[in-house]
User: What shape does this take?
Amino acid sequence: MPASEASEKKIGLRRQWSLCALMVFAAFLLCVATKTPFLSLFASRFSFTQQAIIALGLSVAACLNAWISYKLVAKRPAAQHTIESYSCLDLRGWNPILLAAAAGIGEEILFRGALQTLLGVWLSSALFVLAHARAYRFNELNRRVLLQAAGLFVVSILLAAIAHYAGLISAIVVHTVVDIAGLNTMRHILANRLTPYDSSNPTRNRDAA
Assistant: This one.
């Protein structure tokens, strides 16, 4: 199969940003239905700048923790399954940043903004896990699925705490930065797995990574 044909079948920016728009619209409809001002979802005792600073500090800690965790479990089946799940994404060029932004904005506004306000932390986090069932291929109940679902639930609880105490903007930034780091890591892993090193053409190897 030609490389161009294979890339067309990968999930790209158009699909992810369309999904982001749908999630934001769903959050807006929930606000209308509950007579909640949409902009109130972004209310915080901190200013935008303060939220951004808090978010960047939390992002560094989260990325460091994710990197250490990955190093500890990289060869386990659950980690390998996650890598395979991410292989369906088009991670060329700037796509990791743009895909991460789409997920961070859409998911945080819907799950931590509208749904958390309406349903509470636990139920909105359960829905967050269910929303990722297809992406992580939760097609059967086994140890791998339980571990990944539990991990997503914990991540959702942490993002919920950030949104509650620091503000929704902080949660969006943390989610986006962590996803950028994760997607770039996945791109590096997949490139090294799919492209053998060619000593006669080092430029090609650098581009692939």
User: Anything to note?
Assistant: The chain has a mean pLDDT of 84. Residues 95 and 134 are 21 Å apart (CA to CA).
